[in-house]
Automatic annotation (TrEMBL):
Ranges where the Peptidase M14 domain occurs: 31-307
Record-linked PROSITE patterns: PEPTIDASE_M14
Protein name: Peptidase
Swiss-Prot/TrEMBL GO biological process terms: proteolysis
Transmembrane segments: none
Molecular function in Gene Ontology: hydrolase activity, acting on ester bonds; metallocarboxypeptidase activity; zinc ion binding
Length: 307
């Protein structure tokens, strides 16, 4: 376990990584699960009900990953567009499988009311290695901007470009895990040559609103739906989650577009990042997936009622 008193095993403290350190980090990453058998097979089973689209591919030789999106079969340009993304951080399992569960179990409820565009696993290389970054040690969820260095992010932006200005909703499905504190945040600090500052992990579900266009009632609709499935994260002793003030139960705010976050890639008036907490003893993987699906349903229900 990496802690503030145990330096990260790659690199020199206080010195940003170069090519040698990135190569050493990459050499330590091992495939732990299969994108093909766990994700692509699940997407393929939806083919009889939805249109499937390969919107790009990742060539991380010798590994090759088709990037797949799911669309409403009867796409109608007169209907509002709902974008759902998962697996931007590949290790965040319920983001991927929650998106797939929403499509499989709930999408039919919205047929003829919205156009659905779902990219369930934006970062398949990281999905297989249960990691936050791509093989170049780049975080795709800080890379949604022009000239993106992350092909995962660039490919998704190309997919979304035709609906960017007319999307009604974007729900980006994530998790906050204990390994954020024990592995991924220490790795980030080491990569950037900065000290690791422990922050603690919020115990429960929360959402991230857009500080540049907050929609508090919309976010609360998601919280109310999800608290029927899993518990909501409380604020810490400082009234914060990860250093951001809790503005309402289970809600914090980030400048989504400014920070290059996935939830900021459209001009949708209703945007959110969900954060499930899968490491709690109070939840199961099934509950985590159900919480993500419930959040998407609540988002659509709210937006359609308030157009």
């Amino acid at each position: 376990m990496n802690t503030a008193s145990a330096p990260y095993p790659i690199g020199t403290s206080g010195v940003p990584w170069g090519d040698v350190e990135r190569a050493e980090w990459l050499s330590r990453q091992n495939r732990q699960r299969s994108y093909e058998s766990e994700v692509l097979s699940a997407i393929e089973r939806l083919r009889s009900r939805f249109d499937l689209e390969e919107y790009g591919c990742l060539d991380y030789g010798p590994d090759y990953y088709p990037l797949m999106a799911i669309r409403s079969r009867d796409w109608n340009d007169d209907l509002p567009v709902v974008l759902v993304t998962g697996g931007v951080h590949g290790y965040e399992t319920s983001g991927v499988h929650g998106a797939l569960q929403f499509v499989d179990q709930h999408a039919a409820d919205y047929a003829g009311r919205v156009n659905l565009l779902v990219a369930p696993c934006v970062s398949p290389w990281a999905y297989e290695r249960i990691h936050r970054w791509n093989p170049n040690a780049i975080d795709p969820n800080r890379s949604f901007h022009e000239g993106s260095p992350a092909e995962e992010s660039a490919a998704l932006m190309r997919l979304v470009a035709p609906v960017r200005d007319r999307a009604l909703i974007h729900v980006d499905l994530h998790e906050t895990t204990d390994t954020d504190e024990t592995d991924f945040r220490p790795a980030l600090a080491a990569r950037d040559g900065k000290p690791f500052e422990p922050a603690g992990i919020p115990d429960g579900f929360y959402v991230v609103d857009d500080s540049e266009n907050p929609q508090p009632d919309f976010q609360q609709a998601l919280i109310k739906a999800v608290e029927q499935v899993t518990h909501i994260a409380p604020a810490d002793d400082s009234g914060e989650i990860f250093g951001s003030p809790v503005v309402a139960q289970g809600v914090i705010e980030y400048p989504l577009t400014q920070w290059g976050l996935c939830a900021g890639i459209t001009r949708a008036p209703y945007r959110t990042t969900t954060e499930v907490y899968p490491d709690s003893s109070r939840v199961t993987p099934e509950q985590c997936n159900a919480a993500q699906a419930a959040a998407v349903c609540a988002a659509i229900d709210y937006a359609l009622a308030h157009q």
